[in-house]
Amino acid sequence: MTDEYFRTLADRLRRFADERDWDQFHAPKNLAMALIVEAAELAEEFQWLSPAQSAEPDEERRQRIEAEMADVLIYLVRLADKLDVDLPAAVSAKIAENEFKYPAERVRGNPAKYDRYQ
C-alpha cells in the first residue's frame, strides 16, 4: 500500500463520515476504542482454532476475517487522519526502531522482548 493509497482512503473515509454527519462521533478516543473492539472481533475469529486451523481458515471464516481486518484498518486510518499522523512514515520509523532494538544476529529464533534477550 502506497502513501497515495492511504491518502485516498483517508479522504474517502472522511467523506463517508461527513455525508452521515458522523464526524461528531469520531473523537480520537472514540476511534481508538472502536479500533480495539474491531481488533477483538478479529481475534475472536481465531480464538479456539489450532495453529494449523488458523493458518488455513475455511472460506466462510476467511471472509469474516477479511471484513474484521478491513474494519481495523478503517478505524486506524480514520484515527491517523484525525490526528494528522502520516501512517506510512510512522510505520517506516517503527520498523527502523525495531530493527535497532531487535538485531537479527542477536534475536533470531528468540521471541523475548528486546530488554530480555541475551
Task: Explain the overall architecture.
- The chain has six helices and no strands.
- With 118 residues, the chain is mainly α.
- It has a single domain (3-106), classed as Helix Hairpins (Orthogonal Bundle), CATH 1.10.287.
- The radius of gyration is 18 Å and the shape is globular.
- The chain starts with a helix and ends in an 11-residue tail after the last helix.
Q: Helices and strands in order, then pairings?
A:
Layout: H1 3-19, H2 28-44, H3 51-55, H4 59-82, H5 87-101, H6 104-107
Low-confidence stretches: none
Distance between the termini: 35 Å
Structural class: mainly alpha
Q: Total strand count, please? A: 0
User: What's the shape?
Assistant: globular
- Report Rg: 18 Å
Q: Beta-strand percentage?
A: under 5%
The helix/strand series, from N terminus to C terminus, equals: HHHHHH
CATH class term = Mainly Alpha
Count of discrete alpha- or pi-helical segments spanning 4 or more residues: 6
Kindly report the CATH topology.
Answer: Helix Hairpins
Provide the number of structural domains: 1
The CATH architecture comes to: Orthogonal Bundle
CATH homology superfamily name: MazG-like
Helix content: 55-70%
- Average pLDDT taken over every residue: 94
Biggest sheet, open or closed, and with what strands and sense?
Answer: none
List keywords for this structure.
118 residues, mainly alpha, Helix Hairpins, 6 helices, 69% helix, 0% strand
In brief:
The chain has 118 residues and is an all-alpha fold.
